[in-house]
Specification:
The complex is a heterodimer of chains A (303) and B (362).
Chain A (H helix, E strand, L loop, with lengths): L1 H27 L7 H19 L2 H25 L4 H25 L13 E2 L10 H5 E2 L1 H19 L1 H11 L1 H6 L4 H27 L11 H11 L4 H24 L5 H19 L17
Antiparallel strand pairs in A: 1-2
Helix pairs in contact in A: 1-6, 1-9, 1-10, 1-11, 2-3, 2-4, 2-9, 2-10, 3-4, 3-9, 6-7, 6-11, 10-11, 10-12, 11-12
Chain B lengths: L1 H28 L3 H13 L2 H26 L7 H16 L7 H30 L3 H21 L33 H17 L2 H11 L1 H6 L4 H28 L10 H11 L4 H25 L5 H22 L1 H6 L19
Classes of the chains: A mainly alpha (303), B mainly alpha (362).
Chain lengths: 303, 362
């Protein structure tokens, strides 16, 4: 019971964490990427498609990242170069991704009736750790993407706080005009951040179709990208906080499986709505923008 | 004047460019763009029934488009018109079953009031969270969309489910609460007329009232608005509640005129489509109506397209996303000059004072 709950918490938290770590970098550079949901969805679809046609999971992962990077590049042109409103641009990306994946999916797989499934990524047991009772298989017999997601937490925390690149990134997000005056290249920093985030959103999408399930349904990202946006706020724009918040939301999503199995009188819709309600409640109590990068969401135009 | 003509022409140019790009996508899919366009047109305007149904499908888009326009004019990024419409539809659908014996006009007014109140509660909640708890309304409205969908699902599986428990849907509302079809077999009804009425109300409220002026001032410059004593918090809650009320009205009209009952999928994403509608209309209420008809026609035609060309109707989402992107890109280029926008200029660097959203410059 506990083991199953832990395992589904990790499975639910991983795509959110991957996407949120990318969003963390993007937001630290001063861009708010609402299009993260669309990038994740594109990653999920094109990763599975590539794997289905090629039979190679590696190519699938590559395609996931490439698709999400392409969507983020679209956002970068709009939000960084053209300095358009980031919320509107991001929402447009989400709508576009929902449409494109849907059109391609139904064209190629909706009519043929052939099963759009692949052999998902294998789990890798970490030797004796995986044999620890209760928590072993849940924590230490997981796919490589899970280990990667959690290994990235300290790495990204270190890079943001203790490296020159992290300092430049934060400068672009806090005082873009000053960063530009110092010759740091705000456009370049924001583009780089969006490309890195594209790879991470792509992996988040790949986790959904190449690991957690082995198929695609329309809108499979199901708001996880939006939850990742909230996770960055709840995590106070800090990698460790983001990891903790991802686990919290993962646990909230995992509750539905656990409690449905137990069979409660509570309607299942309550559990499906829980992560979203939790997001609102948590933000209401700690949603203040005091810790946010000062220039978050404001376009920067050199003039 | 020239700038105004250019601002009005850009949505058309965006539609044309989007059509060109989508033609390439269709060719990649192995479908003929010409056939798809012909089938879209045939499905939307091919005959009297198709044309009237385009108006019927445009009606909820007028309501949600107005909802987005009101919120965006105040730089309140309400992405939650979908959830607000759903809660409005639920309120109206629940009340409508109890209105048997009411005089028809009163029953309709009760339905619309319930829809507006339901939507206003959902939008107002996001406004309150923004005003009092500093919760970004983009996140809260998106989250509330998901919550609304689950609330509706619970309602039609639970308290509002029809007694036979055959399907997850509610009982049909009382006949007195139903808007009649004027010219059967067409589904033309009073809904579009109500939508036009609210379009005029929104136009007057936004451009000819003190509150509308304050809202637009808030949208242009929040800090200056505070300086001039505009009650920002109250205005935020009010504008979000009004925005939600308009979306909720759309839900109530849909239940009253078309579906007559509630089921799980009340909205095919009108709240998101409305963002494209409102931006194409330059956030100008009077222009919402033609913009809604364009997108309503796409929705309507997409079904004929699916039958004839085996292209999924979600192609309409591709069109919406592209139109929004191309339009805001055009606006940015027109505002800053393309070279500046794409490459920046050497020399003094300074931050842009305002978001060059392009929205609301009509």
């Amino acid at each position: 019971m506990l083991e199953a709950f832990l395992a589904s918490t990790i499975a639910m938290a991983t795509p959110i964490l991957l996407a949120a770590l990318g969003e963390l970098i993007v937001e630290r550079s001063g861009v708010l990427n609402i299009g993260i949901e669309g990038a994740m969805l594109a990653g999920a679809f094109f990763g599975l498609t590539a794997t289905w046609f090629s039979g190679s999971l590696a190519l699938g992962l590559l395609a996931s990242c490439a698709a999400a990077v392409a969507f983020n590049a679209l956002l970068a042109v709009l939000a960084v170069n053209l300095a358009v409103n980031q919320v509107v641009a991001g929402t447009a990306i989400d709508i576009l991704a929902l449409g494109l994946t849907g059109v391609f999916y139904r064209r190629f797989f909706g009519l043929t009736g052939s099963a759009f499934t692949i052999t998902p990524m294998r789990t890798i047991a970490l030797g004796p750790l995986a044999r620890i009772p209760l928590i072993g298989t849940a924590l230490f017999d997981q796919s490589a993407l899970v280990y990667l997601a959690f290994a990235l937490v300290p790495s990204i925390a270190f890079v943001i706080s203790h490296t020159r690149y992290g300092l430049e990134l934060r400068a672009a997000g806090e005082r873009p005009e000053a960063a530009d005056a110092l010759g740091l290249g705000v456009y370049r920093l924001r583009w780089q951040a969006l490309m890195i985030a594209g790879v991470l959103s792509g992996l988040a999408g790949a986790f959904l179709t190449l690991t957690y399930t082995n198929t695609f349904i329309e809108g499979i990202s199901a708001g996880r990208g939006y939850v990742a946006l909230s996770v960055v706020i709840v995590g106070r724009w800090n990698a460790w906080g983001v990891a903790a918040a991802s686990l919290l939301f993962g646990a909230a999503m995992a509750l539905q499986f656990g409690l449905q199995a137990v069979g409660t009188a509570v309607p299942y819709q309550f559990f499906l709505a829980l992560p979203y309600v939790l997001t609102i409640v948590v933000l209401a109590f700690m949603g203040g923008q005091a810790d946010a990068p000062s220039a978050l969401g404001s376009p920067y135009l050199r003039s | 004047m020239n700038a105004r003509i250019a601002a009005a022409a850009r949505p058309l140019a965006a539609l044309v460019l989007a059509a060109a790009i989508i033609s390439l996508v269709l060719i990649a899919l192995g479908a003929s763009p010409v056939a798809v366009a012909a089938d879209l047109w045939q499905g939307a305007f091919g005959n009297w029934l198709a044309t009237t149904d385009t108006l019927v499908k445009a009606t909820p888009l007028v309501f949600t488009g107005l909802a987005i326009a009101i919120a965006f004019q105040g730089s309140l990024w309400n992405i939650g018109a979908d959830g607000q419409l759903i809660i409005g539809a639920m309120a109206a659908g629940a009340l409508g079953t109890a209105l048997g014996g009411w005089p028809h006009p009163l029953a309709i007014i009760a339905m619309l009031t319930a829809g507006a109140a339901g939507g206003a509660s959902w939008g107002g909640l996001a406004g309150w969270l923004r005003a009092r708890r500093e919760v970004n309304e983009v996140i809260s409205t998106i989250m509330l969309n998901f919550v609304a969908a689950q609330v509706l699902s619970w309602a039609v599986h639970g308290p509002l489910m029809e007694p036979s428990h055959a399907l997850p849907q509610s009982v049909v509302i009382a006949p007195s609460a139903q808007l009649a079809f004027y010219f059967e077999p067409s589904r033309l009804n009073l809904g579009m007329t109500v939508a036009l009425l609210f379009t005029v109300v929104c136009h007057l409220g936004l451009f000819h009232s003190a509150a509308g002026f304050e809202l637009r001032a808030l949208g242009r410059n929040r800090r200056a608005s505070a300086f001039f004593g505009i009650p920002i918090r109250r205005l935020t809650v009010l504008a979000m509640a009004l925005s939600g009320a308009l979306a909720g009205l759309g839900g109530a009209v849909q239940v009253s005129a078309i579906t007559h009952r509630l089921f799980e999928t009340m909205s095919p994403g009108w709240g998101y489509e409305a963002i494209a509608v409102a931006l194409v209309a330059r956030l100008n209420p009077l222009a919402i109506v033609p913009a809604a008809i364009v997108f309503g026609a796409l929705d309507n035609g997409s079904q004929a397209m699916q039958r004839a060309d085996a292209v999924s109707p979600v192609l309409v989402n591709v069109i919406q996303g592209m139109v929004i992107m191309i339009l805001i890109a055009f606006d940015a280029m027109a505002t800053t000059g393309m070279r500046t926008a794409l490459f920046g200029l050497a020399g003094d660097a300074r931050p842009s004072a305002d978001a060059v959203a392009g929205a609301g410059d009509a």
